[in-house]
Amino acid sequence: MTTVRRSLWHEPRPADAPPVGRPDVLLAGAFAAVVVVEAVARPGLAWRPLVAALALVLVPALLWRRAHPLPTVLVGWGAVALLSVLQLAAHTADLGLYSTTAVLILLYSLVRWGSGRETVLGTAFVAVVVALGMYASSAGWADVVGGTAFVLLFVALAAVFRYRADLWHRRQREIRNEERVALARELHDTVAHHVSAIAVQAQAGGVVAGAQPEKAAEVLAAIETEASRTLAEMRSVVEVLRAEDAVAYAPPRGVADLPALARTGATPVVAVSLHGSFSGLARPVDAALYRLAQESLTNAVRHARGVTRVEIDVRREPDAVRLRVRDDGRADPGPTPQPGFGLLGMAERAHLLGGLFIAGPGAAGGWVVEAVLPTEAPA
Questions:
Q1: Is residue 379 very low, low, confident or very high in pLDDT (cuts 50, 70, 90)?
Q2: Beta bridge partners of 356
Q3: Cβ(309)–Cβ(328) under 8 Å?
Q4: pLDDT tens digits for 86-140?
Q5: Are residues 61 and 72 in contact, defined by beta-carbon separation less than 8 angstroms?
Q6: What Enzyme Commission number does this protein have (predicted)?
Q7: Which pLDDT tens digit goes with each residue over 291-345?
Q8: Coil vs helix vs strand at 25
Q9: Is 299 in contact with 342 (CB distance < 8 Å)?
Q10: Helices then strands, each counted (H, E), the chain
Q11: For residues 148 and 130, is the Cβ–Cβ distance under 8 A?
Q12: Could you give the count of Cα atoms lying within 13 Å of 32 in the half-sphere of its Cβ?
């Protein structure tokens, strides 16, 4: 209970309070007109000018109720408290305008837009004013219960709308975080693969240029091709991000595109084996399998020592697809390194789809990456 009170006391104001607008001006103007009409037309109203002046104090309070919730509650409900004091001094059971019930709007705004400290102090002040008003009017138990329930209704409505708005903002932040992580993962998988290929070709070019100058042109052509692919994929990502409307772009690559990763005339040799039919895979699963294989190949090229062959094997099972990527490189001596962004991203892809992901040294040497994904993406 102490923790709840402390968290309520330190609750900040909502950051999305709208500024004073035309609806607020119309509300304040309509309230002022109603006050004047009621003060003129209501018969037998004691201290008519003073009562009308106290009611008109609510006009600026209605305008600034969201920007200054606690001061406006103190002003508005303070005017009501003064009316109750006058009612006790005049020994009358009817003093005040019905239009002053607009103070309930100030109470709503306090709970909806005020900080925790403002809400606690303001509602305590309102409770005292309500009790004073009931005492001044000599209300019976039925009036006390009904009036208290009516006031609490506004408090409850404000709390519900505040809670719903907070949930919506939290969900929006979660969506933005998920999109940012997905974008970072996509950029890493795309750029790292092509840049690794460029680095490998450049290293090979340095060797070939001295021993076989005639093959240098082939290496440069391969580097140019990889660089062009990198630029093309980067531009497509940027185009999607910058477009305000929906844009038509190529679907993500899938299992059917894995044979394009195979290489026979360069080191390391990349062998791709597909077993079974993959036509019925859900699109997220299909794309994830390609990205997992691509990133595993990138890691083998960049980090494995002395790797000469990388095998990519994909097998269709009744309700799942199994991906296995193995290289014949030598592991670095010493403790197992901490997983980097690549392994973390691959694990996230698999887990988000309800699958399994394992990466580590193979029993026969090299590095092995295994992933098992369901054929249908989770809802």
A1: low
A2: 372
A3: yes
A4: 888 777 666 678 889 999 999 999 999 999 999 999 999 999 999 988 888 777 7
A5: yes
A6: 2.7.13.3
A7: 899 888 888 877 777 788 899 999 998 889 999 999 988 755 545 555 555 677 7
A8: helix
A9: yes
A10: 11, 5
A11: yes
A12: 13
Q: Does pLDDT of 279 surpass 90?
A: no
| Calpha distance 126→74 (Å, rounded) | 8
Query: Which tokens in the block code for residue 194?
Result: 């092509």
Helix, strand, or coil (residue 246): coil
Residues ≥6 apart with Cβ < 8 Å to 234: 187, 190, 191
- Which of 224-228, 236-240, 367-371 has the least mean pLDDT? 236-240
Which structure tokens are listed for 52? 């009308």
Q: How far apart are CA 91 and CA 378, in angstroms?
A: 71
Q: Output b/e per residue, 257-279; b: 16+ Cβ within 10 A.
A: ebeebebeeeebebebeeeeebe
| Cα separation values, 321 from 278, 288, 361, Å | 9, 11, 22
* CB contact at 8 A, 314 and 278: yes
Q: Report the 3 state secondary structure along 47-94.
A: CHHHHHHHHHCHHHHHHCCCCCHHHHHHHHHHHHHHHHHHHHHHCCCC
Number of CB atoms found within 10 A of residue 127's CB: 13
Query: In the chain, where are the structural domains located?
Result: 2-139, 254-379
From its phi and psi, is residue 138 left (phi > 0), alpha (psi between -120 and 50) or beta? Answer: left
Backbone phi, then psi, for 35, in 5-degree steps?
-60, -45
Tokens (6 digits) for 279: 């036509």
What's the topology of domain 254-379? Heat Shock Protein 90 (3.30.565)
